[in-house]
Every structure is written in C-alpha cells, then in structure tokens.
Amino acid sequence: MEFGTYISLAIYFLIMLGIGLYAFKTNEDSASGYMLGGRKLSAPVTALSAGASDMSGWMLMGVPDAMYVTGASSLWIAFGLTLGAWINYLVVAPRLRVFTEVANDSITLPDYFENRFLDKTRMLRVIASIVIILFFTLYTSSGVVAGGKLFESSFGLSFELGVFITAGVVVTYTFFGGFTAVSITDFVQGCIMFVALVLVPSVVVFELGGINQTLDSVATINPDLLSLMIDASTGETLGFVAIISLLSWGLGYFGQPHIIVRFMAISSVKQIPAARRIGMTWMIVALIGAAMTGIFGLAYMTSQGIPLDDPETIFIVLSQLLFNPLISGFLLAAILAAIMSTISSQLLVTSSSLTRDVYTCFINKEASDSKQVMVGRICVIVVAVAAIGMALGENKTILSLVSNAWAGFGAAFGPLVIISLLWDKMTKESAIAGMLAGTITVLIWIFVPIDESGAALSSYIYEIIPGFIVSAAVIVIMSITRPSKDSEASEISALFNEFTHRYKTDS
C-alpha cells in the first residue's frame, strides 16, 4: 500500500474525530440532545445521514458484486429500495416527526410505541427494545467484521487490528458527540460515497473508450448481463415471484430504527420535502454508480485479462488499478465511510434503547438528563465491546442472522409504524401481537426446513413479504375484533386528534 493512501485515510479519520469533538462541545447536555440532536437536524444532514446509515458496505461491495455476477437482473432490488425509500419520506417521515413530539416527546421508537398507545404495562416498550438491542448488536458486529476484513485485505493488517481500529474510531466520535456527531459524520460520509460512486464507473467508461464501447464489451462477455429478466449467472428467466421478492426489499424501510430516527430529529416538518428531494437524488445516483461499478468493472477486468477471485472487491481493485495512491486512499475511505456510518447509527440506537427503555424505565425512573447522557455513553461502550467480542469469536450464525435483520425489522416494526400513524382505532394489544407475529413469521421462513434438502421457505420467496402481510393482518383484525375499552379508546382518540391537528398545522 502506497504512503499517499495512508495519508488520505489518516485525514479521513482525523475529520471524523474532529466532528465528534465539535459535537461534544456544541451539544445540549440532555437526553434529547445526546440521543436525538435536540431535533435540530437540517434537511441535507437528515437526507444524507439517513442514506449513509442505510446503505452501509452493501452499497460499495454488495451491489457491485451482484451486478458483476448476475447482471442487470439485480437492479430489481434497487427499484424496490428506491420506491420504499420514497414512500417512507412521503408517508412516514412527516407524520412520525409530529407524532413523536406530541406523544410525550418520544426519543426512541419503543418510547413512541408506549406513548402512542398509552401502554401502562410497558410490554410494548420492552418487546420492541429487546428486538432492537438483540438484532442491532448483531448488526453492529457485522459492520465491525467488514471493517476488519477491509483492513486485512487492503492494508495487510491483521483482522483483529482492523476490528479494533474500525470500532475505536466509531466509538470515540459516537461516545463524545452522540446523535449530532453521528449525523454530521454520516453527512460527510454520504458525500464521500457519492463522489466515489460517480468517479469510479466514469473512469472505467473512459478507459474502455466510451459508454457504447463499454456496453458492447459487456454484451460480448454475456448478452444476458444487460437483461432485466435473466439471471446472467444461471441463464434462467426471472419469474413473477422472484421479481416480487426482489422488489419487496423496499418494505423494510418502514421499520428500520436507525433510518426513521432521522425523521424524528429533523428540525421541522416543513424541512422534509427538501430532505426527500436531496435523499432520493443521492440514493438514485449512488445506486446507479454502484451498479455500473460492478458491470462495467467486469468489462474492464475482462479486457485487461485480470482475474478476480472475489467480486465483492471489485470497487477496491478498481480504485487501486485506476487511481494514484492519494485518490485510491479517498476511495477506500468511501468504503470505510459506508461501514462506519451504519455502525455508528446502530450503536447509538441500541445504546439509546438501553438507556431510555431499560435504565430509566426499570432501574432509575428519576434519572436526570445528565445521568441519562452518561449512561448512554457507557452503553455505547458496552454494545461496542459485545459487538467486538462477537466479531472476534467467529460466530458464523451472526452473518446469517444479520443478512435477515432487514426483513426482521421490516416485518416487526413496519406495519406497526405505518398503521399507528394512519389509524386511530389501532390498539396496543394488536401492536404487540402484530410485532410478535411479524418477527415469528420471518424466523419460521428463514430457519424451518420444508423439504428433504433442508431448504427453507426463504429460498422460494423473501421472508419480508409473508412477515409484513401477517403482521399487518394481525394488527387490523385484532383492532377490529378486540377494540380498546371505552375509556382507553377515548384517550387514544384524543391523542390521535391532537396529532392530526398538529400535523395539518405544521405541514
């Protein structure tokens, strides 16, 4: 690795740590300040931090890998994600921003669920927080593993050292700066990812002589690579169920705590249309860039006669082949940015849930704001240590669990979030039942074998589809057949009416 590459990465790390220090000095010393940035995020920061924390290393490694191997048929996932993100901005974002403030200034998603349904039993909060803490600890671990592998493959460092470097930088700026630091660093990381995903495929096209020559090169390798309807790796035509499964990735957006928490933190509802325009533009350009990196990268590697053992590394390989060390370091920083932006968001959501939904509810109900901030910082370290332990323990089940966490969160929280924002007749019992039903359905779909080969239902249709449908059906049916008692229904209706009035006023 060239010296210039290390210089670029050192500058990147210093910028991230500097943002953490800035946020530490400017943050409000309150629970809302540390965990939600005092609800002061601007539209650009909201949009890019949501995008960066969403896409993770999947954007720079997963999408190029899928395009490299299967061709344009992988774009169905991108179509589904784009549609889901747009609906999320349109339906969930403005309503959640208002309702979380009306519902006793809710700071976390379990906070909102409890306050929205006036749940004095705290069961709704407890179940939601368990789901968040369990899956996000595993999710964080997968990000730490990705960072370790990046340092191992690109810099020749040990996997263990890479894990500690990745986790150490993220924990430092998250520990001191909280949500503000996480959001601003995500904004910067989103900018880096955007530039990198425009730059790499553009240079590849230039090297191959233009877009027409590049497409001809791809078609020469395999014409199926340019077809939306054919999986180029197998030559099989995609059926209706396969396309619906790929598109259904978009359903996951409505239940991802680390994404929708950005909507809770934006400064006002009036900022959301601007955030939507910025966020969707970023997402569409970045997804196109990632897809083109994979398929155009295949054309370049083939034209140069260079073998590639792992298609996931195509972005890394191109950055080293086509750019000088300083630029190459910047491009590798883009991968780190994708990984670290997601780790920091998940780390903060998990520590916030531990603080608000466990500590202040069951250990110290009278905890002051400063004490909650201190506990939140301690929880950041605790979750990070647990994630590092899992990463170093080589627990192979982590990767399989994390690969399905998107579906798990989408099915458990997606219908609950949407219906709670749109329907005043929804009950807390139906919320609990729907959350459990969605989670259990996803787990059955993933882990229960249905034939002699041991294949699970998820090999036939993506588990978020049945999970989402079952969860939504349970919520609606239970709310209709077992409505709340009159006194409770009246209170919930009054809260919903207050939200509706405030939403119309603020919009």
UniProtKB/TrEMBL annotation:
Family recorded in the similarity comment:
Belongs to the sodium:solute symporter (SSF) (TC 2.A.21) family.
What protein is this chain from? Sodium/proline symporter
Q: List where the protein spans the membrane.
A: 6-24, 75-92, 123-141, 161-184, 191-211, 238-261, 282-302, 314-339, 374-393, 405-423, 430-448, 460-480
What biological processes does GO assign it? Answer: proline transport
Gene3D superfamilies named in the record: Sodium/glucose cotransporter
Q: Which function does this protein serve?
A: Catalyzes the sodium-dependent uptake of extracellular L-proline.
Gene symbol? putP
**Which InterPro entries does the UniProt entry name for this protein?**
Na/Glc_symporter_sf, Na/Pro_symporter, Na/solute_symporter, Sodium:Solute_Symporter
Reactions catalysed, semicolon-separated, are: L-proline(in) + Na(+)(in) = L-proline(out) + Na(+)(out)
Q: Where in the cell is it found?
A: Cell inner membrane; Cell membrane
Q: Which domain of life is it from?
A: Bacteria
Which molecular function term from Gene Ontology is one that the record holds? L-proline transmembrane transporter activity
